[in-house]
Amino acid sequence: MRVRSEILAGGAALVLAPLFLSNFSDYLLAWAIVSAIAFLGLTVVTGLGGQISLCQASFIGFGAFFTGLLLRHGWSFWLAWPTAALLAVPIGILVGLPAMRLRGVHLGVATLGFAVFFNEVVFRWSWLTGGSEAGVNFERPSLFGFDLHSNTRYYFLALVVFAVAAGLTVRLQRSVLGRSLRAMRDAERGAMATGLSIERAKLLAFSLSAVYGAVAGGLLGPLLGTVVRRSFDPIASVVMLALVGVAGLASVPGAVIAGLLLNYLPGQLGTVAGIKNVDLIIPAVMLIILMQFAPDGLAALPRHLAQWAGRTGRLAPGRPEEALP
Amino acid sequence: MTLCRTIDLGISFGGVQAIEALDLRVHRGEIVALIGPNGAGKTTVLNCLSGFYLPDRGRVELDGLNLRRFSPARRAQLGIGRTFQTPQVFRSLTVEEHLDLAFALGRSFLGHRRLRRRSEGGRPAEDDIGRLIDATGLAEHAATLAGALPLGLARRLEVARALALAPRLLLLDEPASGMEEHESRNLGELILNLRDSPGMGILLVEHDMGLVGQVADYVYVLDHGRLLAAGDLARVRQNPEVIRAYLGGEARRESLAVG
Fold this sequence. Notes:
The structure holds two protein chains of two kinds.
Chain A: H1 2-20, H2 23-48, H3 56-72, H4 77-96, H5 104-120, H6 126-129, E1 136-137, E2 142-143, E3 146-147, H7 151-174, H8 176-186, H9 188-193, H10 198-224, E4 226-227, H11 234-247, H12 252-273, H13 278-293, H14 301-312
Antiparallel strand pairs in A: 1-4, 2-3
Helix pairs in contact in A: 2-3, 2-7, 2-8, 2-10, 2-11, 2-12, 3-4, 3-5, 3-10, 4-10, 7-8, 8-10, 11-12, 11-13, 12-13
Chain B: E1 2-13, E2 16-27, E3 31-35, H1 42-50, E4 57-62, E5 65-66, H2 72-78, E6 80-82, H3 95-105, H4 126-135, H5 151-163, E7 169-173, H6 181-194, E8 201-205, H7 209-215, E9 218-223, E10 226-231, H8 233-238, H9 240-247, H10 253-256
Parallel strand pairs in B: 3-8, 3-9, 6-7, 7-8
Antiparallel strand pairs in B: 1-2, 1-4, 4-5, 9-10
Helix pairs in contact in B: 3-4, 3-5, 6-7
């Protein structure tokens, strides 16, 4: 079970990381993990279901703003956040409706239309956002008296939520819905002839992706302290899909890697090396590299390396660790 | 007893009449072949029956039920199984997972659960899947990803997947194309065995006259969307109109000869 040990190692790394990282790095890592939750939504709708979705950032924005709205009305965070996540279901269904008729690029354009609509209309509604272009402010919550204000503690909250979301995603992959989505992605007509209601499958996939996005959004507000409309513009959604496509679309590790590429790496490079626009440069460079060397995404890179090493005869195939110095 | 019929069926694409006033019947326990030259409209008939095309005129009935309102998925759940000329298998699922999914959809929200016929409720046992895999000759490949199957086996998998729906009507679209002669004969035996399934009818679109001769009880000949002849193979082969449609040139006489 090589795969399982890889996942264990990855999980252990995520749990132990704060021991070795600065406070600022914990903050970036928490951000990356919150994004990874949203990326899991793309894992479902695009990775499993093959439906192009270019409004994942809008779902995050919805989750963040709606949680903020309920908080302003005096709700507890622990009630406001799940409510916003549940309300994302009808939003996801709405976005999924064009998928009944559209495929591929056309569907991409339609979902991008939603992203524009959310950014230009919905996220300007003052009843939702409080009416300030300066953004919505959040405070970090405590749980049963346990204070989650520090970056490290908030990181662990995000990590727990991510672990639950990832577990559900893995279960989903093996469920009837997961297999139905893969069947639909592989051969839509074959899936219809097998009795699959592709309408129901698509709407379920989109509403699940919306819930993942809104769950991430609810966590994002208190993490960042302030949330602005611009963070959820259509370009953010496009970058998200590109990144997760590069990192590995149909896998949980792919979502983590995408989160790290989106929020951790640029933060580190930006502050340490002073490089600007890294969030746009990284996906472009990664895409070029990966198209060349790992067409299945970063998550499949170890396998590719092992195969490549096996072919060249320097490492035993499948057991690369033995030959390492 | 009539299982499925088309009544005055007609459909056109951009002004081209693909099927015209077609009346066709499939009885229970019967294997019916639909033959004709390329472009005769054979696959179009299958698409009208399975709901992938909506006809402009006429209708399709299954056990007397007008299917007009039913989507392909609902027709599948009602008991119309089909295969495709180019197999539409799920490359990332194994052979076993295909059948498992087909069974599971029959009792899932994702598969129009409410439309299930009550008579065949209950969970399919593991051995139902095993029996189907054996019957279609896929036993050695149960754990193989469909994307890795050669064409002949992918076609068998499509047949197995369709059978997992416990269909009343099975539609086979050129199952023997691209197959070696002995493969096609094996396939013929498989199809003949299927006739034993109680109450099922089979409609077969096929160019391979060897296979048609081997299995078909009744043959419809289609040309330019119109019915040219119907009857048993030996009879329709004598029909001068059929010969003319098929020939076009002397060289094609072979295509009508039993292989």
